[in-house]
């Protein structure tokens, strides 16, 4: 019991006693002598004086308690939870978390011999690359606002100068969230999952192709979403990406995602979802009115920056994609997949030329050998890295979390590949990739992975010559993220 509570209790008891005694005194006054009445009055005055002292003590104790509470609320709390330095106010209304990511890849490419004459001289780069080298601050302001400022010094193929990766502000009013700034809008299951806990070094190609239309990293957007225990609805209006070159008119797009978890148990769940994007107005890149859209990706590894499949720049009046999500998790087993359908609307197309359509899909799964389950993030309805029950400590016989992963992905950017009308052809290429990986999480902030990729690309140039190729790649990633 606090000092203030004790003082209040004493005051109440004393007051009740004084009232009772006063009543008794009035009842007895008629039978008492003047001397007895005077003695009783003096006794009551003494008790009244004692009660006044207790009330004064109560006021002092209450003031001190309020002062202590205000002091605690205004105090600054500094902590390092799971390796992340945090500064927060005592009442939790404000916080600032220092955020950093290092992802260092070292890859070896083994290209097939006998490459065609059209690709002689193509030599994929065996070497190293800081895929992500990020530093930033995120946190909370006035309890209901979240924010993030993040710079990235990594890159694809070569390390880059620092660029703005994220800069956004979000207002939270359960079950709603509204975000504005530069960020990656919610476009799909693999798209929204954290790259720090992904199964493989890169997202599957289908996810990259679809998110690249109106979403992807650095996209300037306004997004609203609502979510419950088993569902999420998200929609965003998007524009250009932070750092894009000047255009005559920026792109205008829309993205959306709906997720539902129809079945869920203590250690298992079924995930379903749909996602879509629309480019209502492509960016105008020339004064004459060119509106090019290029659907392209690198083969799920960024140590070499060569893009082997690409639709090429197609002058378009718009584009869209829709996708389907399905995942199932049972304890330490996970399987998930997505299908994507992509279409472009040509601008001023001839009568004998049609609008191209492409498709891609993937399926991937994991088995955590040490028994932990991958976390299902209730904030974005996607899977994250597994919890680490026994952080690496050889002396104690603890070895962290170990995981086996596998993926098959395919993407077809060919459309009317052999049409008699050359303007109707799109020879973007067909790509199939089989990936196998081992992930080791010594603790919650470090990760090491070993991945094997078998890549096959079938693609023709305008003359019909083969410019695709097959190759094998081995990649080792070292990661530290908090």
Written overview of the protein:
- With 482 residues, this protein is α+β, with helices and mostly antiparallel strands.
- The chain has 2 domains: 3-73; 75-481, Porin (Beta Barrel), CATH 2.40.160.
- 17% of the residues lie in helices and 48% in strands.
- The chain is built from 4 helices and 23 strands.
- The chain has a 16-stranded antiparallel β-barrel with strand order 3-4-5-6-7-8-9-10-11-15-16-17-20-21-22-23. Strands 13-14 form a two-stranded antiparallel ribbon.
- A hairpin with a 2-residue loop joins strand 6 (163-173) and strand 7.
- The chain starts with a helix and ends with a strand.
- Residues 10-22 have low confidence and may be disordered.
Helix content estimate: 10-25%
Helix tally? 4
General shape: elongated
Give the strand line-up of the largest sheet. Answer: 3-4-5-6-7-8-9-10-11-15-16-17-20-21-22-23
Reported for the largest beta sheet, the result is: 16 strands, antiparallel, barrel
CATH class of the largest domain: Mainly Beta
CATH topology of the largest domain: Porin
Q: Give the helices and strands as they follow along the chain.
A: HHEEEEEEEHHEEEEEEEEEEEEEEEE
CATH architecture of the largest domain: Beta Barrel
Tell me the span between the first and last alpha carbons. 41 Å
Radius of gyration: 33 Å
User: Structural class, from helix and strand content?
Assistant: alpha+beta
Which regions have little confidence, pLDDT < 50, spanning 5+ residues?
Answer: 10-22
């Amino acid at each position: 019991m606090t000092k203030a509570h004790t003082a209040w209790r004493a005051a109440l008891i004393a007051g009740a006693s004084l009232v009772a005694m006063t009543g008794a005194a009035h009842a007895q006054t008629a039978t008492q002598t003047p001397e007895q009445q005077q003695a009783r009055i003096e006794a009551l005055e003494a008790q009244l004086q004692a009660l006044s002292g207790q009330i004064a003590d109560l006021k002092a104790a209450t003031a001190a308690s309020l002062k202590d509470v205000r002091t605690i609320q205004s105090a600054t709390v500094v902590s390092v939870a799971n390796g992340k330095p945090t500064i927060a106010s005592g009442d939790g209304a404000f916080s600032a978390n220092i955020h950093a990511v290092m992802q260092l890849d070292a890859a070896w490419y083994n290209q097939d011999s006998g490459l065609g004459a059209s690709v002689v001289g193509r030599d994929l780069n065996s070497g190293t690359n800081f895929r992500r080298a990020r530093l930033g601050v995120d946190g909370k302001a006035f309890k209901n606002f979240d924010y993030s400022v993040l710079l990235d010094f990594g890159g694809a193929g070569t390390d880059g100068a620092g660029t703005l990766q994220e800069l956004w502000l979000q207002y939270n009013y359960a079950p709603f969230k509204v975000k504005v700034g530069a960020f990656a809008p919610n476009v799909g299951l693999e798209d929204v999952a954290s790259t720090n806990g992904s199964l493989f070094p890169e997202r599957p190609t289908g996810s990259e192709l679809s998110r690249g239309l109106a979403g992807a990293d650095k996209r300037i957007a306004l997004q609203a979403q609502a979510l419950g225990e088993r569902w999420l609805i998200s929609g965003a209006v998007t524009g250009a990406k932070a750092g894009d070159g000047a255009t005559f008119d920026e792109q205008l797009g829309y993205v959306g995602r709906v997720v539902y978890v129809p079945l869920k148990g203590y250690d298992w769940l079924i995930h379903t979802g749909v996602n879509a994007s629309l480019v209502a107005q492509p960016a105008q890149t020339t004064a004459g009115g060119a509106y090019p859209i290029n659907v392209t990706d690198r083969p799920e590894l960024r140590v070499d920056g060569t893009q082997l499949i690409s639709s090429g720049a197609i002058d378009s009046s718009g584009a869209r994609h829709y996708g389907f999500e399905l995942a199932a998790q049972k304890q330490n087993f996970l399987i998930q997949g997505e299908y994507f359908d992509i279409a472009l609307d040509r601008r001023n197309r001839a009568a004998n030329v049609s609008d191209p359509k492409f498709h891609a899909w993937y399926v991937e799964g994991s088995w955590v050998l040490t028994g932990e389950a991958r976390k299902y993030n209730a904030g974005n309805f996607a899977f994250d890295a597994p919890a680490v029950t026994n952080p690496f400590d050889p002396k104690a016989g603890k070895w962290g979390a170990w995981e086996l992963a596998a993926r098959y992905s395919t993407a077809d950017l060919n459309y009317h590949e052999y049409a008699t009308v050359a303007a109707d052809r799109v020879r973007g290429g067909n790509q199939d990739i089989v990936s196998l990986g081992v992930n080791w999480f010594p603790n919650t902030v470090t990760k090491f992975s070993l991945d094997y990729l078998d890549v096959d690309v079938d693609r023709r140039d305008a003359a019909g010559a083969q410019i695709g190729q097959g190759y094998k790649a081995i990649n080792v990633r070292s990661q530290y993220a908090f």
